[in-house]
Amino acid sequence: MRAGDRAYSLLRSDIVEWRLSPGDLLAEVEQSARLGVSRTPLREALARLVAEGLAAPHAGRGVVVSAISLEAVTDLFEVRLPLECAAVGRAASRGDRDVFAALAGEFARAGRLIEDDDGGQDAYYALVARLDQCIDDAAANRFLLQAQKPIRTHLARVRRLARDNPPRLLASAREHEQIALALAAGNADLAEASMRVHLHHSLQHLLASPRDSETPRARPG
Length: 221
Known about the structure:
There is one protein chain. The chain has helices at residues 3-16, 28-35, 39-52, 70-94, 97-108, 111-114, 120-139, 142-158, 166-184, 188-208; strands spanning 55-58, 62-65. The chain is mostly helical. The protein has two domains: 3-65, Arc Repressor Mutant, subunit A; 70-214, Four Helix Bundle (Hemerythrin (Met), subunit A) (Up-down Bundle). Strands 1-2 form a two-stranded antiparallel sheet. Strand 1 (55-58) and strand 2 form a beta hairpin. The longest helix is centred in the middle third of the chain and has 25 residues, at 70-94.
């Protein structure tokens, strides 16, 4: 892997997983030493992060991790809604119903994951990612996938705001179960309606979150 690609991948992961928080300075000398790359590939990585909106130039400071504002979250969901609904609509008519039925069963049991303090929430988000992947595979539209990719990058970061809130995660699991059940039934209208309900509740939860939760501490490990 090229040094620039490696630096980009590591920094992106640190930002999405909140090991680097909004406002943190991405100083070239410090990050070059930490990542074991020269300043040229690091600058390439920083430019890519800025282009994606994960970092931003800051006058007099260089490049910093970008903030997550409530306005940005609203804008994100405004674009996400039609894309996700289009994806589940296509997946309902094209997907393997047994696959989605099995996923629905996993979401029905997801409370055990969410209540497990030893990596349970990470396992739950991995389950959500598997549902997303199965929807993408069933929808089979590369242009739709390309449109969703940058949105999901920011979404993975925003989702951290729901961590440490088991009631919301339990409700989210039930909502995902309903989406998976609709897909297992091959019902496109119900799948889209279930997705709309889930996105509405997710957005309302994020908007109602205390402002100081916009920079949560990274979970141990």
